[in-house]
Every structure is written in C-alpha cells, then in structure tokens.
C-alpha cells in the first residue's frame, strides 16, 4: 500500500494503483478546540498557518509554532520540529498528548 498526501516534491507525474492507495489528502480539518483543557484535536494535514490562525481566534496559541507556515502537524510531529519556544516546551511532538496513526493496511 501507498499513503498518498497529494502534495509532493516530485517533478514527475506518478501513477498509483487505486486499489493500493490510501488517500489522506483530505485530512486537513480542525475537529475540536477545548479551551478549558487548552487542547486541540485536528487532522494530520492541518498546516501551521491554519493551526495558529484558528487557535488565535480562541485566544490560544500552540506551545511550539514552526517558522514554516505550510508545515503540517504531521510533518512537525514526525520531523521533531524545534523552534525558539522549544527551549521551554521541548520539540513539537512532545506537546502532542495523543496521536492516531494510519498504517499501510488502512487501519488506525
């Protein structure tokens, strides 16, 4: 199986077998903000820009905000993103309290 993000750095067109592709490109929504617990539930393709803009509307801000606004939550998590606030709050993935992982057979 291939997990397909739709956004790639490839210059060539890729041909994918639709029977062996898990398309996660649509998973880019913020699902819930809990102001009391100061937590947010979002999908993996939410960009830092969207995350910050949405939380600011609720007078909140993520503990670690990456400089690259197009970086996704999953990219920051798996890439162990560090920014200037990381000296206090540690890398981005440490600020995540729970994750769900999509594996190659389309199970969570």
UniProtKB/TrEMBL annotation:
<dbReference type="InterPro" id="IPR016169">
    <property type="entry name" value="FAD-bd_PCMH_sub2"/>
</dbReference>
<protein>
    <submittedName>
        <fullName>Uncharacterized protein</fullName>
    </submittedName>
</protein>
<dbReference type="InterPro" id="IPR036318">
    <property type="entry name" value="FAD-bd_PCMH-like_sf"/>
</dbReference>
<keyword id="KW-0560">Oxidoreductase</keyword>
<dbReference type="GO" id="GO:0008202">
    <property type="term" value="P:steroid metabolic process"/>
</dbReference>
<dbReference type="GO" id="GO:0050660">
    <property type="term" value="F:flavin adenine dinucleotide binding"/>
</dbReference>
<dbReference type="InterPro" id="IPR040165">
    <property type="entry name" value="Diminuto-like"/>
</dbReference>
<dbReference type="GO" id="GO:0016020">
    <property type="term" value="C:membrane"/>
</dbReference>
<dbReference type="GO" id="GO:0005737">
    <property type="term" value="C:cytoplasm"/>
</dbReference>
<dbReference type="GO" id="GO:0000246">
    <property type="term" value="F:Delta24(24-1) sterol reductase activity"/>
</dbReference>
């Amino acid at each position: 199986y291939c997990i397909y993000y739709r956004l790639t750095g490839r210059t060539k067109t890729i041909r994918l077998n639709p029977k062996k592709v898990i398309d996660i490109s649509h998973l880019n929504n913020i699902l819930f903000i809990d102001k009391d617990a100061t937590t947010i539930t979002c999908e993996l393709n939410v960009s830092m820009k969207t995350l910050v803009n949405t939380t600011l509307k609720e007078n909140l801000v993520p503990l670690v905000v990456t400089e690259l606004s197009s970086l996704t939550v999953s990219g920051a998590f798996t890439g162990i993103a560090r920014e200037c606030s990381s000296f206090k709050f540690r890398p981005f993935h440490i600020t995540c309290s729970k994750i769900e992982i999509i594996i190659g057979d389309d199970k969570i």
